[in-house]
Each structure stands twice: as structure tokens, then as C-alpha cells.
Amino acid sequence: MSQPSPILIAELAYPTHRGKLTALFNTSFNGSQQRGIIAAWCTFGTFKISSEWSWRIPSLLQGLMPMVQLIAIWFIPESPRWLVAHGRRDEARQILVKYHAGSDENSALVDFEMAEIEAALQFEADTANSNSWLELVRTPANRWRTLIAFIVGWFAQWNGVAIISYYLSLLLNTIGITEAKDQTLLNALLNVSNWIGAVFVGAMMVDRLGRRTLFLISTGGLFVCYVIWTTLTGLFVGADNKALGQPVVAFIFLTYFCYSIAWAPLLQAYTVEVYTFTLRGRGLSFLLTTSFSALILANQVNPIAMQTLGWKYYIFFCCLLLCLFWVIYFLFPETKGRTLEEIRDVFEKDGRSLLEEKQTHDLENGQTRGEPGKTSPKAHHIDD
Predict the structure, then answer these.
(1) CA–CA distances in Å: residue 315 to residues 193, 238, 246, 259, 319
(2) How many whole angstroms separate alpha carbon 342 and alpha carbon 308?
(3) Computed from CA positions of residues 284, 287, 293, 296, in that sequence, does the dihedral angle turn out positive or negative?
(4) What is the span of the domain harbouring residue 316?
(5) Res. 31 pLDDT band, cuts 50 70 90
(6) Based on the structure, what is the number of domains in the chain?
């Protein structure tokens, strides 16, 4: 479910809504905020039950959302880009007319989108040597994309937040909060805070601030919060000062809030954008494989490191976050204000748009499109 969903959302979305919609998808699925809220508050309500229903009720609720999805999936249209790629141009156009133009058959936006989709698919068919996984690393542009996917996938698990996600009870035990009721309540409130950050700061600001800026704000905020949190924890453990416990809890919340600004909403949304149509599925699969591999490693390493080093293990993540900030600064390009096809120009950097290449290709092959003297509209900045 996690692989095709963000691709379908990105390729179906109205151009100026794409960033927000794909980011919102991640806040409900991969970022786990909405699921976390349901799970956290459900377990907070059932942990007092003395029978097996204390865990059976949360487990049964896991099946509710897939049931809704199974019913609703039949009403979702196919990706126009997939339809064009498989020779079903008329079906693709009708979907764009219905969902992007209010059923206006003469919409200039639909004409532009169709021309750009066809140009992109033609370009990818002409330049791809093969239809294999090796395409992810064949050209400099594709290696750049794949390196970004690796960094986003790996450091979504290795930016320090996994310590909070999976070992919150150990963290709270460290600062003297040991009651099950207090821990489950803090976990429930933490998920609400994360969701607010992911939706209202991350997803809703993705087109205003940009993807790269959100990653920098999120990672920079993580670094600052982690340094303060590490310092406070060290002082608490060293002096056994219970007064420092509350500030530590506050910075646990702030650390996860900073994470939620970008690493939750943009994990898949940004990766979907940087890859071209023919590589989008493989690129996202590579991201997920990287992320799950990092998660497996973290689940094996973090408990041992926490037991051996205690709070001093946090220093490792402080150093890691500082390096990650500068990697993002120099490596991550901005993709806001462009259609999925125009993002290709950011990576290829040859100074020519896909429509210009298509027009050249058509002229070289003696083909003409549209009315004489009429050119396709250019919209390198879709916000305009």
C-alpha cells in the first residue's frame, strides 16, 4: 500500500495541490501521526482493562481502516500518466478534464498537461537504455536522484527520533516518569503534537516555504533540540535533580515536533517528485527498502547502545544531525512551483524544457501539432 499510493496521489492531483496532498498522505500513513493518535489514545483508554481485551480492542481496530480503503479504492481513477504510457490517451484526457478542468473539454490547462506528459514519456523512451533497476544509477542525474532517495530513506530512521518512537518508556524511566498511566498519556499527547506539526507546519506550508527549506528547518531544529535535550538529560542523571525532568519532557516534544515538520510529510512526497515517470515506482521502492533496512539496523543497535551508553548515546545523534543538515543544504534541490515533468529540468540542467525538446523532435520527424502559429503554454512556475 505504501508504494503505489503516493505515486497515484501525485499523478492525479491538481498541479497546485500536489505538494499538499502528497504531504498529507504521509502524515496519515508513513509519518504515522493519525494512526499514532488513534492507537495511542485507544491504548490509553484500554490499559486499565484487566482482561485480554486491553490488547484485543486496539488490535481489532487495526482492521477498520483497510476495510474502508478496500471499499473506496474502486472509486479512484487511474493515473493519467500511466494511461498515456499504455496508449490510452483519450481515457487520460477525460480524467484530466473531469478532475482538473471542471469537465471543460477545451481547457488550456488540460491541453498543456497532456502535451507535457506526452513530451516527458517520449523523452524518457528516447533516452532510457533499458527498463531495469540499473537505470536508477546509469546517468549523473539518476544517481543524484537515487542518492537523495537513500538519504531521505535512511535518515528518516537514523536522525534520533527512533529513540523516542520505540523507546519512549526507557527515556521516561531515565528521568523518573515510571507510572504506566503517565507514560501512556504522554505518548498520546506526543502523537497529537506530532500530527499538528506534520499537517499545519509541514504539509500546509510545503508550497509556501518549499521542500528544501522545510528539510533544513526540520533537521536544524532537530539538532538544536537534541543538543539541549542531551545536555538536560546529562545534568539530570549526574545530579539526580528531579526538577530537570520536566524540561527534558518538553524537549522530547519539541524534538519530535521538529521531525514532523519535514521527515514525516515529505519522506515519500519529495521522492515521488524527484524521479521521472518511468523511474518513479522503482525509486520509491528503493526509498522504502532503504528505510526499512535502516529501521531493522536501528532496532538491533539502539537497545544495545541505550543499555551500554545511556544518555551519552544521544551525543552520536547530535553529531549526525549536524552533518545531515549540511548534506541537505548542498544536495537537495527545490522542486516547488513546478509540474512533475518540469522537475526533470532541475536535475538534467540542459537549459531546455520538455516541450521545447518535443517540438524539436516533431519538427525533425516532420510532425506538427495543434493549430498553425499556436504554441503550447509554458508554466515553469505553476503558482503563476
Answers:
(1) 25, 16, 20, 17, 6
(2) 50
(3) negative
(4) 4-75+135-331
(5) very low
(6) 1
